[in-house]
Design the sequence.
């Protein structure tokens, strides 16, 4: 195999006394550790475990005394999308007091689904926390419950606390996910009439709505917006929208944008439609881009295409101190080869060397 430049800085991962390199059974054991930080890391790692082996333990973690662990458990359950978790999430949202964790639980519930999931989420459109109300709107969008149209419109029009338009942006996002083209057009019109586009969240939601419903008539408007908009979050959303309405060449130029968020969005948008320029850009980003997160995203894209150096990029990524990076890299290698070498770059390197001989 060819020599690969170090992808990430070598940094101690913390919890030096704990070995996180074991397989699912060891991570399930660590989920009972007295240190909440260890339980949190175990819950994050178990996101990549077979749900049938870890579901029961994760349902217990949903009631952990530590809020961060509860949030990680909710996110893991949401990533699995297993309907068996719905009754447990239904109970958890009734007693959770931390808005950020309640948000995670509502979003997890929307991914796990179930016949009555929409009814469970609906009351949270009137929660005291704006963050929770916005999460409830997003959750209803994922659940696809047409019976909640009236409630969503009420939240869109009559929330007096929504000064930053976060809830209205979330409701527009729900309409977009539901594929309600008429509602999307109507909501966008009301936002424009009310001068809500001053809020970046609204501009992002409108841009994503244009792409989500393939609103090609707004292509010129969208291009004009991104030419004058200086917010990288809006441009990142526009990368996806422009690709969805067939404007790939416009997005390809952003692969050289000065902002890493925009470069990554362009890479993801083009990769999602199989544009060959994405693979070429990923091969460059993984070696040269100054942004760590973008280098790793490029590495994952190359891994998916079975690039000759992709496995070694994953090994390098396991040296990162960013848990979201090294956990994803480890999971990618474990899925591909079925090996359980844990977070041990040396063992993985030796295995890959032997495999290439």
Sequence:
């Amino acid at each position: 195999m060819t020599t690969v430049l170090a992808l990430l800085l070598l940094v101690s991962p913390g919890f030096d006394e704990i070995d996180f390199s074991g397989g699912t059974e060891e991570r399930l054991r660590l989920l009972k550790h007295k240190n909440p930080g260890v339980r949190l890391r175990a819950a994050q790692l178990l996101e990549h475990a077979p749900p049938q082996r870890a579901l029961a333990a994760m349902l217990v973690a949903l009631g952990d005394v530590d809020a961060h662990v509860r949030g990680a458990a909710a996110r893991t359950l949401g990533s699995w999308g297993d309907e068996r978790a719905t009754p447990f999430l239904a109970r958890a949202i009734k007693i959770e007091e931390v808005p950020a964790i309640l948000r995670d639980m509502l979003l997890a519930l929307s991914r796990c689904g179930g016949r009555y999931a929409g009814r469970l989420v609906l009351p949270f459109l009137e929660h005291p926390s704006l963050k929770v109300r916005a999460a409830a709107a997003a959750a209803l969008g994922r659940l696809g419950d047409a019976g909640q149209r009236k409630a969503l419109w009420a939240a869109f029009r009559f929330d007096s606390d929504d000064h930053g338009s976060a809830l209205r942006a979330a409701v527009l996002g729900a309409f977009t996910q539901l594929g309600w083209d008429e509602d999307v057009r109507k909501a966008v019109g009301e936002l424009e009439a009310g001068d809500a586009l001053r809020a970046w969240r609204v501009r992002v939601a409108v841009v994503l709505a244009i792409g989500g419903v393939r609103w090609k008539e707004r292509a010129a408007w969208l291009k004009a917006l991104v030419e004058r908009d200086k917010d990288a979050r809006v441009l990142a959303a526009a990368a996806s929208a422009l690709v969805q309405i067939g404007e790939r060449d416009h997005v390809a130029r952003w692969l050289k944008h000065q902002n890493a968020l925009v470069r990554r969005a362009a890479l993801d948008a083009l990769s999602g439609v199989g544009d060959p320029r994405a693979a070429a850009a990923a091969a460059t980003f993984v070696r040269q881009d100054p942004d760590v997160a973008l280098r790793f995203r490029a590495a994952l894209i190359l891994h998916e295409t079975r690039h000759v150096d992709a496995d070694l990029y994953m090994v390098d990524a396991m040296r990162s101190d960013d848990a979201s990076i090294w956990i994803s890299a480890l999971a990618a290698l474990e899925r591909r080869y079925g090996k359980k070498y844990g977070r041990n770059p040396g063992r993985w390197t030796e295995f890959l060397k032997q495999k290439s001989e």
